[in-house]
Amino acid sequence: MVVKVVATAYGGPEVLAVIDEEVGLPSPGEVLIDVRAAGTNPIDYKLYAGNMGSDPSQLPMPLGLEASGVVLAVGADAVGPMGEIHIGDEVIVYPARGTYAEQVIVPASAVVRKPANVTFEEAAGLLLTGATAVHALTATGVLAGDTLVIHGASGGVGLIAVQLAVAKGARVIATAGESSHAELRRLGAEPVVYGEGLADRIRDLAPDGVDAAIDAVGTDEALDVSLALLADRSRIATIAAGRRGLELGVKSLGVGPGSDPGAEIRAAARLELVRLVEEGAIEIRVASTYPLADAAAAHRELASGHTHGKIVLLP
Ligand SMILES: NC(=O)c1ccc[n+]([C@@H]2O[C@H](COP(=O)([O-])OP(=O)(O)OC[C@H]3O[C@@H](n4cnc5c(N)ncnc54)[C@H](OP(=O)(O)O)[C@@H]3O)[C@@H](O)[C@H]2O)c1
To answer: What are the start and end residues of each CATH 3.90.180.10 domain in the chain?
Structure first.
């Protein structure tokens, strides 16, 4: 039996329960992972908060879409996007389901190599945010020499998007609370505080205008300011205000009706992200860790909307 965290009802973090479950052996095309760290993401609590429906048949709901760990067993014909998978391999899994667990069975297609130069905690937080950031930069066509605004730059997605854009040779203006400004400067961005007067602060920094904008926070301000700064709506993308983004004619990325899931871009991005981490070109910031059994406390911190990096669960 292994320990696993599930949502037993729709609601707040109080609906999370720690249960024991038999995991079994992987079927053909599957891999059994000994989870060393599970990445948390806002979608995890949004799913049981009812933001995406409240179908009772989805309960109890397994949680967690990504993790790092060690391969315990490999089903027949289980080949991953990086090739053969062997018992004992250190890996990252994404996209998977139910990674808030001591062990999880995942499709081989979700298994990639864990870079040896990062910890399991860091590796667990790389792929969901990283693949989203790659998708957002691709959708907005960011190239060397562009001036890009990233709203919500101090969050999980924002921090990776900043590093990827800087590595491409873009100039990055990053909105964030004051406490993250030194970190964003270290990563090569130019931070500005969000709130009243944001458009003018960005105009002061970039009097010749901006070329693209990514909303990684979902506030009205992020999209309103992007529209005020930039005429070409095809170079504005939101990952967090899908419905409003579609109404405004900007690019809406990810889950939700009418949004672009970018499945192929995100799947391919995993290999690029692993390589960039191995080269030391991007780093993953772990904001805090919690024991797996304290997933509810982790979600309370995550739901504050002011974490600066990844919150990771440790089985
Ligand atoms: N569509 C997709 O595929 C996809 C994928 C991943 C995430 N998402 C969504 O994207 C959003 C961000 O995800 P995440 O994992 O990066 O979240 P996160 O790690 O919780 O980061 C949120 C960040 O937003 C900043 N913030 C809060 N209020 C702000 C404001 N008014 N203006 C600018 N920044 C502000 C916070 O920093 P300060 O403390 O500095 O305020 C915090 O660092 C979430 O809504 C998530 O559900 C969507």
So the answer is: 2-126+285-314, 128-252
pTM for the structure as a whole: 0.98
- Residue 56 in this model has a pLDDT that exceeds 90: yes
Tens of pLDDT, residues 125-151: 999 999 999 999 999 999 999 999 999
Ligand 1 atom nearest to CA at 129: 6
Distance of CA 39 from the midpoint of ligand 1 (Å): 15
2-126+285-314, what's its fold?
Quinone Oxidoreductase; Chain A, domain 1 (3.90.180)
Nearest CA to ligand 1 atom 2: 254
226 lines ligand 1 (CB under 6 A): no
* 47 Cβ closer than 6 Å to some ligand 1 atom: no
Q: Which ranges in the chain belong to alpha helices (H)? A: 42-49, 120-124, 127-139, 156-168, 181-186, 198-205, 220-229, 242-248, 263-278, 295-303
The dotted CATH code for 128-252 is 3.90.180.10
pLDDT digits (tens, 9 = 90+) for 45-55: 999 999 888 99
The 3-state DSSP class for residue 192 equals: strand
CA angle 281, 167, 147 (to 5 degrees): 155
Q: Of all protein residues, whose CA lies closest to atom 34 belonging to ligand 1?
A: 152
Protein residue whose Cα sits closest to atom 40 of ligand 1: 177
Give the other-Cβ count within 10 Å of 125's Cβ: 30
Distance 107 CA to ligand 1 centre (A): 28
